[in-house]
Structures are given as structure tokens and as C-alpha cells.
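Quick note —
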Amino acid sequence: MTGRQGPTGGQRAAPRRARIADVAADAGVGVGTVSRVLNGSPHVRAATRQRVLDAIERTSYRPSQLAAGLSRGTPRSVAILVPFLTRPSVVARLAGVIEVLGVEGYDTIVFNVETPAQRDHHARLLTERHRAAGVIVISLPLLREQRAALIAAGMPVVLVDVAAPGFPRTVVDDVRGGELATRHLLDLGHRRIAFVGDPRGGRPARDEFGFRSTADRIRGYRRALTAAGIPVDPTLIRSGPHSAAAAAELTRDLLRLPDPPTAIFANCDTQALGVLFAADAAGIPVPGGLSVIGFDDIETAVHLGLSTVRQPLRESGARGAARLCRLLRGETVTPLREELPLEVIARSSTGRPPPPRRGPSAGRQGAQGGPPTERIKEGITI
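Predicted structure written out below.
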């Protein structure tokens, strides 16, 4: 139950927190005058300043320290731009950023971006109205003119999981990551290897941001297959919205092919969960009938025994924040491009391919590896 009981047993609303407009009305001045007093502006007469201070006391007004820090551009507030805040990889990077900034004594203001319009709005605020001490951009490509505006404003900027010339940036090599994942499957003996990932072209919302990870990981996938002397089969490369449900549907289509894949490389662990779900629903054991590898190594991957390409998500955020703190202290950050390592984490979702099918009705059920995987039956909802 929320709230408190009044004398008649009903709910009594909590007192409304005073706003800056309440202070202005009490002091008989405009909101702009109150703002100037709060920001310590010298362009306010002493008598007026005292009236405003008295009104603040009477109304018990408490200004937001984060908002005040942004509007004044104090050196204790850092703005963080992130796309799709609830994505596990973004959450992990953001945790690393906030941890370091907290130790250094900085407030953080997180701007979540889910449309290009939101990106443009927040980027404009940072250069036109709200002046933070610095900006960290996580996994969100900015337009050239937006990057130029930040430079022109003298704003210290650090990028994490974003490639852009002229800025300190902490990244991984996604092409190499795609090679590592595919080579792991090749080394196990797989030759029919599919890829499930995000759109690389067209007009879906996620594509309008210019994300590069899917295209780069496909390049690595193609490169590894070519190096192994295996022709790239376009029918084994599938793309769709960034979700486990979409990946499950793409996987169902792959498994219906006359010659289905024996292994699937998913662009990220979230999409790999969808692949596992589809295999389970089709009665195909993992890894006995289908091997699955993801990318990121989020916490869920550990619990599901998902093989994956680990990238240091939290560390990348922490490293980016530490580099921004160095800039804010007036230090030089070199090199501008910092690349963090990738590694394959082999767990129980990858193994050797099943024996060749002996007939059109043989299917995958009963291939080595026993009964269908139980991974998705442990409380994971797609």
C-alpha cells in the first residue's frame, strides 16, 4: 500500500514538491530571475536576491543538482548518450561508466535514444543549452555535423563501442570477432554454418542509426569461410529485428531448408537465445543436432551454457570513463583508438556436427547429444 491514511481512513496525498515557479510566485519575480540567483549570477540586485532566497526558504524548494549541473556546465556532471538502454550489452557498458564516474565524484545524466529524432534532440541540447563537463557516447554513431558541433563547443567527448576519427574511442574489432566465432565452428567440423543478425540495409528503425557491428561480423564470418575453402551460401545469412523472438523465427526458416545448417552464429547473445528456443521447439538437440554460438558473453549466456565471443562490456565502459576523466583533468589521451581483446568462450552449446542424414525423413532428432536441450525451459521467456 502506498501513501498514508487520513483521519477518515482514506489515502492522503504526499505534499507536492515545490517547483521553481512556486519560488518565483512567492518572491514576485520571474522564473528567469530565480534561475539566475540559483546559478550565482552577479546580474541580480541584492534586494531581489534576498527576496528569492527568502522564498526558497519558505517554500522548501530544493533544486535538482543534476539539472543545475547541466545548466551551469559545472565540472561534476557527465552526460551519457546510449541507444536502447535495456539491451544487456548497453546495460553492462553503462554500469562500467557509472562506476568509474561515481568514484571520481561526477554526477551522471543518461540520455536514452531509440529513434534518430531523439538522437538529434539530445545532441542539440548538449551543444546549445545543457552544458555538461563532458560526454560519453556508448554504441551510438553520431552524424558528422553532430560530432563537429561537439568539437566546436569545446566539449570533451569519449566514445565507447563507436568508431569515429578524431575522438578517443574504446572499441573491439567486430570483423575479427566474426572470424573467431566462425572459426570455432569450423574447427569443430561444421561446414553448413548460418548467420542470424540485425538488418544491414533497407529502412528498419535500427538501420537508420548506421550501426556497424552486424556488417562487420558478417565480414569476419565470410572471411573465415573463404579461408577454409567453403563457398558462402547467401541463403544461410538471415537478418531481422534485434530480438530473441525475431531470431527464433529466422532460425525456424533456416531449419526448414532442404539442407539446413548444422551450426548457427548469432550476432549477439540475445539473438542466440532465440536460436536456442527455435531448436528446442523443433526437437533438435543442442549441440548434438545444432551448434549455437553468440557474441557478447552477457550474464544469461553463462547460465544457459551458451558458447560465445566474449567482449569486455563492463570494462569497455570503465575504460571509456577513465579516459574522459583524464581529459577533464587536462591530460592527453593516447592513443585515440583503444582496442580491447576478444576471445571465444566455448561452453556446452557447441560441439561436433551430427552424422549425415541417411534419408529425407531422418531429420535431426536422435542425432548425437541426446534429447532436446532443456536450456529454454528454465524460466527464460522469449
